[in-house]
Amino acid sequence: MRQHRVRTVRRLARAAVAASAAAAALTFGFSAPSQAADPSLREVAESTGRFIGTAVNDGLLSNGTYSDIVSTEFDSVTAENAMKWEAVEPQRGQFNWAGGDRLVQFAQANDQLVYGHTLVWHSQMPGWLQNGSFSNSELRTIVTDHVTTQVSRYKDKVQRWDVVNEAFNEDGSLRQSKFYQQLGASYIADSFRAARAADPDAKLFINDYNTETANAKSDGLYRLVRDLKAQGVPIDGVGFQNHLIVGQVNGQAIRQNLQRFADLGLEVAVTELDIRMRMPSDSSKLQQQARDYRAVADACLAVSRCSGITVWGVSDRDSWVPDVFDGEGAACPWDENYRPKPAYDALRDAFVAAGGDPGDPDDPDNPGDPDPPTGDCSAAFTVSNRWDTGSVVSVTIRTGQALNGWRAQFDLPAGVNLANGWNGAFSQSGRTVTVSNAAYNGTVSAGGTISFGFQTSGGAAQDGTRVSLGGQECAAG
Ligand code: 9MR
């Protein structure tokens, strides 16, 4: 977002980070983080039309230093554990939404997207499911009911879901999970269909690890998603976890692999990035780690359908790595004392190099991009969810002529502000909101559609608001 208001708010927020970090240092006995750079990661990412996210550990949100970094540096959050099946449905049919709801509220308060993780996964299943014995048809109903209930709960609040997680063996065959053993591969298509029915606007992903480059496992994943698409199964994207090792990152191979999935017409995303090293860390390992982070970020940014990057944890203090890999750690962009590491700078540099420096919007030398031309258009502006102080809107524009880059505009009611948006780069000036294409959805064929969505704060948007495309008002439609 380019508007001055947002930047000012964020500058103030960063000052608050420094202040509360100093307070936290007294409380927790570690030193205050050095001031993170300005503009923040989320600002440079938003200017490229991509998101930058982090896994969030629910228990740490009450730590001011932690939550300040999450809110000021990231525009997307993923629940590290709170939305997993064992957390959400600990007893059959009894749901515990506390952790997930907290994260969604945090995201709404901080203008962030939510990446939902994860609906159907062989790991972290509740005991009743793991150990229970069910007929095939009962198990199918259990799976689709769970997907339906959870996606419905967070309809219009979670923009992307890892519907199926880690379905593959290393050799590219499907993992012998309880789901696969009883239901065969059909559990995957059924899960996606249930998710689409519950929230038609959420982007539906399949997510896995060790699939970052071309290998037997990613080949198996490729064949599956190609076939799902061919069968009309509602899948939108593929998540690549990217739990990597310092010194073993091949950016070019990652880019090529992202591109082959993108060429199937799918969104791709880096969903769980961390890059671990053998401990103790030293400055040469940290420098290599920074180069490796940069390589992954550059790979995503080189692929127009790569919508964003999520890191798996803010700081080395919070990471899952040391618990699982003996003698390894220091995998995150912030260190144990919440100080940004060279890896943090590398991520920022990657977005800036991809055109992500928002610059100063008050600078007359920074006029923004010219309006691309458009022909006739019709637009549906639909408020899909509203509450006292906000709303969720989805906009679909049909264009009469082929576009290579687009810019849409509309007005919000007085006092209503744009909070966050997806599938476009958003800015607000007065009541007017301008949305231009993200890197991955600028090309639209004649008769094709543009879809984006956003949340408001301060009040609700109005159903049926008129939209213009390239300066021409679109018909209602
Ligand atoms: O980071 C998560 C850790 O706290 C949990 O104990 C663990 C349980 O399996 O899951 C970790 O997150 C995993 C993610 O959900 C799926 N991909 C691999 C991640 C790291 O194990």
The count of DSSP E runs of length 2 or more, i.e. the number of strands, is: 22
Identify every distinct bound molecule in the structure, by name, code or SMILES. ligand 9MR
How many structural domains? Answer: 2
CATH superfamily placement of the largest domain: Glycosidases
What is the fold named in CATH at topology level of the largest domain? TIM Barrel
Cα distance, first to last residue?
Answer: 27 Å
Overall pLDDT, averaged?
Answer: 89
Secondary structural class: alpha/beta
Strand content is 15-25%
CATH level-1 class of the largest domain: Alpha Beta
Gross geometry: globular
Q: Please bin the fraction of helical residues.
A: 25-40%
CATH architecture of the largest domain: Alpha-Beta Barrel
The number of helical segments is 14
- pLDDT < 50 stretches: 1-34, 362-373
Biggest sheet strand line-up: 1-2-3-4-5-6-8-9
Computed CA radius of gyration, to the nearest angstrom: 22 Å
